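Lab meeting tomorrow. Look over both lines:
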Amino acid sequence: MDSDQTVGLGTALVGLFDGLLWALNSFAMAFYNIGFALMHPMMWLDWSDKKAIMRFVYYGGSTEFFFAVTLVFIILFILGVVRPKVMWSSVVLFEGIANFVGRLFAWAGLLMVLQQVLIVIMQRIFTRPDIVLGLGVPLSFDISWYAEELKLYNALVITMGVTYTFVQGGHVRVDLIYAGVSYRAKRVIDMFGSVFFMMPMSVLIWMYGWFFLWRHLIVPKPSASDTIERLLAKSRALRWNVETIGFSPNGFTAYFLFKILLVAFAGLVFLHAWAFLMRSFLEYREGEESENKFKDLDMNDNYDGAAPTIKEYGESA
Protein backbone atom coordinates (compact mmCIF):
# COMPACT_ATOMS: atom_id res chain seq x y z
CA MET A 1 0.00 0.00 0.00
CA ASP A 2 2.76 2.44 0.94
CA SER A 3 4.57 1.60 -2.31
CA ASP A 4 1.44 2.35 -4.37
CA GLN A 5 0.96 5.67 -2.60
CA THR A 6 4.61 6.58 -3.20
CA VAL A 7 4.34 5.75 -6.89
CA GLY A 8 1.10 7.73 -7.20
CA LEU A 9 2.61 10.76 -5.46
CA GLY A 10 5.73 10.55 -7.62
CA THR A 11 3.66 10.37 -10.80
CA ALA A 12 1.62 13.39 -9.70
CA LEU A 13 4.76 15.40 -8.93
CA VAL A 14 6.30 14.49 -12.30
CA GLY A 15 3.08 15.48 -14.06
CA LEU A 16 2.97 18.77 -12.14
CA PHE A 17 6.60 19.48 -13.04
CA ASP A 18 5.97 18.69 -16.71
CA GLY A 19 2.94 20.99 -16.71
CA LEU A 20 4.98 23.79 -15.17
CA LEU A 21 7.71 23.37 -17.77
CA TRP A 22 5.09 23.40 -20.54
CA ALA A 23 3.57 26.65 -19.21
CA LEU A 24 6.99 28.33 -18.87
CA ASN A 25 7.94 27.23 -22.38
CA SER A 26 4.60 28.53 -23.73
CA PHE A 27 5.19 31.92 -22.11
CA ALA A 28 8.71 32.01 -23.55
CA MET A 29 7.35 31.20 -27.01
CA ALA A 30 4.71 33.91 -26.57
CA PHE A 31 7.41 36.57 -27.01
CA TYR A 32 8.31 35.07 -30.37
CA ASN A 33 4.68 34.55 -31.43
CA ILE A 34 3.74 38.16 -30.63
CA GLY A 35 6.73 39.50 -32.55
CA PHE A 36 6.09 37.21 -35.51
CA ALA A 37 2.40 38.15 -35.68
CA LEU A 38 3.22 41.87 -35.58
CA MET A 39 5.96 41.55 -38.20
CA HIS A 40 3.81 39.45 -40.57
CA PRO A 41 0.25 40.80 -40.19
CA MET A 42 -0.85 39.87 -43.71
CA MET A 43 -0.34 36.18 -42.95
CA TRP A 44 -3.51 36.28 -40.84
CA LEU A 45 -5.26 39.55 -41.81
CA ASP A 46 -5.25 39.27 -45.62
CA TRP A 47 -8.58 37.50 -45.99
CA SER A 48 -8.29 37.44 -49.77
CA ASP A 49 -5.91 34.57 -49.03
CA LYS A 50 -7.78 31.47 -47.85
CA LYS A 51 -4.79 30.30 -45.84
CA ALA A 52 -4.77 33.59 -43.94
CA ILE A 53 -8.39 33.00 -42.93
CA MET A 54 -7.56 29.54 -41.66
CA ARG A 55 -4.57 30.87 -39.72
CA PHE A 56 -6.84 33.48 -38.14
CA VAL A 57 -9.36 30.77 -37.23
CA TYR A 58 -6.73 28.46 -35.76
CA TYR A 59 -4.75 30.96 -33.72
CA GLY A 60 -7.83 32.82 -32.48
CA GLY A 61 -8.79 29.79 -30.39
CA SER A 62 -5.32 28.38 -29.73
CA THR A 63 -3.17 28.05 -26.62
CA GLU A 64 -0.58 30.21 -28.40
CA PHE A 65 -3.06 33.08 -28.51
CA PHE A 66 -4.00 32.56 -24.86
CA PHE A 67 -0.40 32.70 -23.65
CA ALA A 68 0.39 35.69 -25.87
CA VAL A 69 -2.55 37.72 -24.52
CA THR A 70 -1.91 36.62 -20.94
CA LEU A 71 1.76 37.58 -21.26
CA VAL A 72 0.82 41.11 -22.34
CA PHE A 73 -1.42 41.54 -19.30
CA ILE A 74 1.17 40.06 -16.94
CA ILE A 75 3.80 42.51 -18.21
CA LEU A 76 1.28 45.34 -17.81
CA PHE A 77 0.53 44.19 -14.26
CA ILE A 78 4.23 44.02 -13.34
CA LEU A 79 4.77 47.53 -14.75
CA GLY A 80 1.81 48.66 -12.65
CA VAL A 81 3.30 47.20 -9.49
CA VAL A 82 6.45 49.25 -10.08
CA ARG A 83 4.59 52.36 -11.29
CA PRO A 84 1.05 52.62 -9.81
CA LYS A 85 0.15 55.35 -12.32
CA VAL A 86 0.42 52.78 -15.10
CA MET A 87 -1.93 50.41 -13.32
CA TRP A 88 -4.45 53.12 -12.43
CA SER A 89 -4.37 54.29 -16.06
CA SER A 90 -5.05 50.71 -17.19
CA VAL A 91 -7.93 50.36 -14.74
CA VAL A 92 -9.50 53.62 -15.93
CA LEU A 93 -9.04 52.57 -19.57
CA PHE A 94 -10.52 49.07 -19.16
CA GLU A 95 -13.41 50.26 -17.01
CA GLY A 96 -13.98 53.08 -19.50
CA ILE A 97 -14.29 50.50 -22.28
CA ALA A 98 -16.81 48.54 -20.20
CA ASN A 99 -18.83 51.68 -19.46
CA PHE A 100 -18.76 52.91 -23.06
CA VAL A 101 -19.82 49.57 -24.54
CA GLY A 102 -22.52 49.04 -21.92
CA ARG A 103 -24.00 52.52 -22.29
CA LEU A 104 -23.93 52.24 -26.08
CA PHE A 105 -25.70 48.89 -26.31
CA ALA A 106 -28.16 49.80 -23.57
CA TRP A 107 -30.01 51.65 -26.36
CA ALA A 108 -30.86 48.22 -27.77
CA GLY A 109 -33.43 48.02 -24.97
CA LEU A 110 -35.20 51.08 -26.34
CA LEU A 111 -35.07 49.70 -29.88
CA MET A 112 -36.56 46.45 -28.62
CA VAL A 113 -39.51 48.29 -27.06
CA LEU A 114 -40.12 50.49 -30.13
CA GLN A 115 -39.96 47.50 -32.47
CA GLN A 116 -42.38 45.53 -30.33
CA VAL A 117 -44.82 48.47 -30.41
CA LEU A 118 -44.44 48.66 -34.20
CA ILE A 119 -45.14 44.93 -34.52
CA VAL A 120 -48.33 45.22 -32.45
CA ILE A 121 -49.52 48.24 -34.48
CA MET A 122 -48.86 46.54 -37.81
CA GLN A 123 -50.58 43.33 -36.71
CA ARG A 124 -53.59 44.69 -34.82
CA ILE A 125 -54.32 47.97 -36.60
CA PHE A 126 -53.07 47.59 -40.18
CA THR A 127 -53.29 43.74 -40.23
CA ARG A 128 -50.14 43.57 -42.33
CA PRO A 129 -48.15 40.30 -42.63
CA ASP A 130 -44.87 42.17 -43.17
CA ILE A 131 -43.00 45.38 -42.33
CA VAL A 132 -41.07 47.43 -44.87
CA LEU A 133 -38.38 49.75 -43.49
CA GLY A 134 -35.62 51.78 -45.10
CA LEU A 135 -34.83 54.69 -47.37
CA GLY A 136 -33.93 53.97 -50.97
CA VAL A 137 -33.42 50.20 -50.64
CA PRO A 138 -36.31 48.89 -48.51
CA LEU A 139 -35.83 46.26 -45.81
CA SER A 140 -38.84 43.99 -46.14
CA PHE A 141 -39.39 40.96 -43.89
CA ASP A 142 -42.29 39.05 -42.47
CA ILE A 143 -43.53 40.22 -39.06
CA SER A 144 -42.34 36.95 -37.54
CA TRP A 145 -38.79 37.90 -38.65
CA TYR A 146 -38.96 41.14 -36.68
CA ALA A 147 -40.56 39.35 -33.72
CA GLU A 148 -37.71 36.84 -33.52
CA GLU A 149 -35.16 39.61 -33.98
CA LEU A 150 -36.21 40.98 -30.58
CA LYS A 151 -34.09 38.22 -29.04
CA LEU A 152 -31.03 39.83 -30.64
CA TYR A 153 -31.66 43.12 -28.81
CA ASN A 154 -31.99 41.21 -25.56
CA ALA A 155 -28.71 39.40 -26.28
CA LEU A 156 -26.99 42.71 -27.05
CA VAL A 157 -28.03 44.18 -23.70
CA ILE A 158 -26.88 41.10 -21.78
CA THR A 159 -23.58 40.28 -23.49
CA MET A 160 -22.40 43.84 -24.14
CA GLY A 161 -23.63 45.21 -20.82
CA VAL A 162 -22.27 42.54 -18.49
CA THR A 163 -18.99 44.31 -17.64
CA TYR A 164 -20.71 47.71 -17.44
CA THR A 165 -23.09 46.25 -14.86
CA PHE A 166 -20.10 44.82 -12.99
CA VAL A 167 -18.38 48.22 -12.88
CA GLN A 168 -21.58 49.85 -11.66
CA GLY A 169 -22.06 47.19 -8.96
CA GLY A 170 -25.37 46.10 -10.42
CA HIS A 171 -24.95 42.31 -10.33
CA VAL A 172 -26.91 40.39 -7.70
CA ARG A 173 -24.67 39.20 -4.87
CA VAL A 174 -25.20 36.82 -1.94
CA ASP A 175 -22.68 37.91 0.72
CA LEU A 176 -22.43 35.06 3.21
CA ILE A 177 -18.78 35.73 4.10
CA TYR A 178 -17.69 38.74 2.04
CA ALA A 179 -19.82 41.35 3.83
CA GLY A 180 -18.46 40.48 7.27
CA VAL A 181 -14.71 40.45 6.60
CA SER A 182 -12.23 43.32 6.75
CA TYR A 183 -11.53 45.74 3.92
CA ARG A 184 -8.27 44.12 2.86
CA ALA A 185 -9.73 40.62 3.18
CA LYS A 186 -12.41 41.70 0.68
CA ARG A 187 -9.73 42.82 -1.75
CA VAL A 188 -7.97 39.44 -1.41
CA ILE A 189 -11.28 37.67 -2.15
CA ASP A 190 -11.77 39.94 -5.16
CA MET A 191 -8.32 39.15 -6.51
CA PHE A 192 -8.87 35.43 -5.96
CA GLY A 193 -12.22 35.58 -7.73
CA SER A 194 -10.86 37.43 -10.75
CA VAL A 195 -7.97 34.98 -11.23
CA PHE A 196 -9.69 31.68 -10.42
CA PHE A 197 -13.26 32.35 -11.56
CA MET A 198 -13.61 35.24 -14.03
CA MET A 199 -10.52 34.50 -16.13
CA PRO A 200 -10.94 30.70 -16.48
CA MET A 201 -14.66 31.07 -17.21
CA SER A 202 -14.08 33.65 -19.93
CA VAL A 203 -11.24 31.61 -21.48
CA LEU A 204 -13.38 28.46 -21.63
CA ILE A 205 -16.27 30.34 -23.24
CA TRP A 206 -13.90 31.92 -25.76
CA MET A 207 -12.20 28.63 -26.66
CA TYR A 208 -15.49 26.84 -27.29
CA GLY A 209 -17.35 29.85 -28.68
CA TRP A 210 -14.62 30.72 -31.17
CA PHE A 211 -14.87 27.49 -33.16
CA PHE A 212 -18.64 27.38 -32.60
CA LEU A 213 -18.77 30.74 -34.41
CA TRP A 214 -16.56 29.80 -37.33
CA ARG A 215 -18.36 26.50 -37.92
CA HIS A 216 -21.36 28.64 -38.87
CA LEU A 217 -19.42 30.99 -41.14
CA ILE A 218 -17.19 28.87 -43.37
CA VAL A 219 -16.86 25.41 -44.87
CA PRO A 220 -15.11 23.03 -44.52
CA LYS A 221 -16.06 23.42 -40.87
CA PRO A 222 -13.03 23.91 -38.59
CA SER A 223 -12.69 21.92 -35.40
CA ALA A 224 -10.93 22.72 -32.14
CA SER A 225 -8.98 19.48 -32.52
CA ASP A 226 -7.63 20.40 -35.98
CA THR A 227 -3.94 21.19 -36.25
CA ILE A 228 -2.75 24.21 -38.18
CA GLU A 229 -1.48 21.90 -40.93
CA ARG A 230 -4.90 20.27 -41.27
CA LEU A 231 -6.68 23.62 -41.43
CA LEU A 232 -4.27 24.92 -44.05
CA ALA A 233 -5.00 21.79 -46.08
CA LYS A 234 -8.74 22.46 -45.70
CA SER A 235 -8.23 26.02 -46.93
CA ARG A 236 -8.01 24.79 -50.53
CA ALA A 237 -11.77 24.11 -50.42
CA LEU A 238 -12.68 27.05 -48.17
CA ARG A 239 -15.71 29.16 -48.96
CA TRP A 240 -18.01 31.40 -46.95
CA ASN A 241 -21.22 29.75 -45.79
CA VAL A 242 -22.80 32.20 -43.35
CA GLU A 243 -25.67 30.71 -41.36
CA THR A 244 -29.00 32.17 -42.53
CA ILE A 245 -31.45 29.48 -41.41
CA GLY A 246 -34.15 30.54 -38.95
CA PHE A 247 -36.15 28.47 -36.48
CA SER A 248 -39.35 29.19 -38.39
CA PRO A 249 -40.02 29.50 -42.16
CA ASN A 250 -40.20 33.30 -42.12
CA GLY A 251 -38.24 33.84 -38.91
CA PHE A 252 -35.02 35.67 -38.10
CA THR A 253 -32.18 34.55 -40.37
CA ALA A 254 -29.04 36.01 -38.78
CA TYR A 255 -28.44 33.72 -35.84
CA PHE A 256 -24.70 33.81 -36.52
CA LEU A 257 -24.78 37.20 -34.78
CA PHE A 258 -25.49 35.42 -31.50
CA LYS A 259 -22.27 33.42 -31.95
CA ILE A 260 -20.33 36.67 -32.47
CA LEU A 261 -21.87 38.10 -29.31
CA LEU A 262 -20.83 35.00 -27.35
CA VAL A 263 -17.19 35.53 -28.32
CA ALA A 264 -17.42 39.28 -27.65
CA PHE A 265 -18.92 38.56 -24.23
CA ALA A 266 -16.00 36.28 -23.33
CA GLY A 267 -13.48 38.89 -24.48
CA LEU A 268 -15.10 41.65 -22.43
CA VAL A 269 -15.21 39.50 -19.29
CA PHE A 270 -11.55 38.48 -19.69
CA LEU A 271 -10.52 42.11 -20.15
CA HIS A 272 -12.47 43.23 -17.12
CA ALA A 273 -11.15 40.36 -15.02
CA TRP A 274 -7.72 41.96 -15.36
CA ALA A 275 -9.16 45.39 -14.61
CA PHE A 276 -10.83 44.02 -11.48
CA LEU A 277 -7.61 42.29 -10.42
CA MET A 278 -5.64 45.51 -10.86
CA ARG A 279 -8.20 47.62 -9.01
CA SER A 280 -8.41 45.14 -6.15
CA PHE A 281 -4.61 45.04 -5.87
CA LEU A 282 -4.33 48.83 -5.85
CA GLU A 283 -7.13 49.23 -3.32
CA TYR A 284 -5.50 46.59 -1.12
CA ARG A 285 -2.15 48.37 -1.27
CA GLU A 286 -3.42 51.93 -0.85
CA GLY A 287 -6.07 51.27 1.81
CA GLU A 288 -9.71 52.18 2.31
CA GLU A 289 -9.31 55.73 1.00
CA SER A 290 -8.74 54.32 -2.49
CA GLU A 291 -12.02 52.36 -2.63
CA ASN A 292 -13.84 53.10 -5.91
CA LYS A 293 -11.07 55.52 -6.83
CA PHE A 294 -11.53 56.97 -10.35
CA LYS A 295 -14.59 54.78 -10.89
CA ASP A 296 -17.07 56.32 -13.32
CA LEU A 297 -20.38 55.49 -11.66
CA ASP A 298 -23.77 56.50 -12.99
CA MET A 299 -25.50 56.52 -9.61
CA ASN A 300 -23.75 57.00 -6.29
CA ASP A 301 -24.65 59.20 -3.33
CA ASN A 302 -20.99 60.07 -2.79
CA TYR A 303 -20.16 60.62 -6.44
CA ASP A 304 -20.72 63.83 -8.40
CA GLY A 305 -21.33 62.03 -11.72
CA ALA A 306 -18.27 63.44 -13.53
CA ALA A 307 -15.86 60.98 -15.08
CA PRO A 308 -12.22 61.40 -13.96
CA THR A 309 -9.89 63.12 -16.37
CA ILE A 310 -6.40 61.95 -17.30
CA LYS A 311 -4.93 64.82 -15.31
CA GLU A 312 -7.02 64.03 -12.21
CA TYR A 313 -6.11 60.37 -11.88
CA GLY A 314 -2.53 61.05 -12.93
CA GLU A 315 -2.01 63.58 -10.13
CA SER A 316 -3.77 61.44 -7.52
CA ALA A 317 -1.90 58.26 -8.42
